Amino acid sequence: MQSTARAQFELSDEQRAIGALAAEIAQREIAPHIARWDREHHFPRELYGKLTDAGIMGMLVPETYGGVGADYVSYALAIEELARVDAGTAVTVSVHSMICSAIAKIGTAAQQQRWLPTLAGEDAIAGFALTESDAGSDAAALRATAKRSGTGYVLNGRKQWCTSGSHAAVIMGMFRTGGAGARGVSAFLIEPSRAGVTVEKVTEKLGIHTSNTCDLAFDDAEIGEEALLGDEGSGFGNAMTALTAGRIGIAAQSIGILAACLDESVKFARERAAFGKPIGAFEGVSFKIAQMATDLDAARQLTYRAAALADAGESFGIAASKAKLFASTAARKHSAEALQIHGGYGYTTEFAVERHYRDAKITEIYEGTSEIQHLIIARSLLGRLD
Question: Which residues are the active-site residues?
Fold first, then answer.
């Protein structure tokens, strides 16, 4: 293994400090409220000003534009600590950071100046709009259009399951500017406040209730040419690049859920007695906890490796897919085991494991399903055989 990849195992003081800061904020600002927020499906808009002030929203924004300029390892640590308390907040920050990173890497100087200081320091949230009713895993099949008109474009179509769409100051959206297939797709930075852009529906979900998910309608929405992110026709590639980086965030989110399940399972196994002794004394419980801890460590190593490769400027797509695949599978599996350890208590809202159980499943679906991650990893070894 190259030295740059090994660096993931040796966290710097700065990386640890960012993780500790995120943990402290999560405990102070989220933990006292999360049961109610989850029950009421409340998007805690008031929270993000505090996260902005702490630098969390600007983690991946260069210092030149008022951000922290942190590396991906620090970002993963922060997302993990947020998800340990609330997975919904973690994914909101993850998607926001993904858009910030995309603008920093492929945006024009004008776009960077326009949006990065705002997203890092002005209590503004970035959202993402890719999926459509007939274009999910097959994202290149999207139908929403952006047609040239004068000095800009006119947007038409529907976008489904847009993260933070109801509250975003800007959305990275993919629209068809050319013919069929991936090469006909372009990316745009869209202000949802523009005429012709409306929230059609806020989606009710199994879990991550504190994350806003909505359907957006675009009806002759006019945007300027300056909204085009990257070259025309490069939007699909830009979206996939953003999603690849985002997979580190979802892997970290999965780790946070898994870490919370382990903490709560250990505590319950020590305190809950049955047949005259703590239930942790029984192999049926203790072995579950042992495997949970082992998979947590493995998920962290895979995720830190992917983040370290990204920080080193090396190819990290396959590593990110492996990290997301393993971590999300482990989060879903062990959240169920944590609920089982808690028995009947775990099935009640009195204990947080039922929320972690509901939150964990989505990690296997968004930012590329587990099936898509298997496909990416397999093709990296076998090539395309079809």
Answer: 367
Q: Where are the beta strands (DSSP E) in the chain?
A: 126-129, 145-149, 152-163, 170-176, 185-190, 197-202, 213-224, 228-229, 273-274, 277-278
Q: Which two tokens stand for residue 149?
A: 């008109």
Question: What is the rounded average pLDDT for all residues in the chain?
Answer: 95
User: 102 is written with which tokens?
Assistant: 């995309």
| Cα–Cα dist 355/144, whole Å | 35
Q: What's 79's DSSP letter? A: H
In the predicted model, is pLDDT for residue 6 greater than 60? no
Please indicate, yes or no, whether the overall pTM of this predicted structure exceeds 0.85. Answer: yes
Query: What are 221's strand-pairing partners?
Result: 155
In this predicted model, what pLDDT tens digit does every residue of 71-116 receive, in sequence order? 999 999 999 999 999 999 999 999 999 999 999 999 999 999 999 9
Closest CA to 192 of 128, 246, 270: 128
**3-state DSSP assignment of residue 135:** strand
Q: pLDDT band for position 8 (50/70/90)?
A: very low
User: Residue 230: what are its φ and ψ, rounded to 5°?
Assistant: 80, -170
Buried b (16+ CB within 10 A) or exposed e, 288-300: bbeebbebbeebb
Domains, the chain, with CATH or none: 3-125 (1.10.540.10), 128-236 (2.40.110.10), 243-382 (1.20.140.10)
Q: Which two tokens stand for residue 78?
A: 């922060």
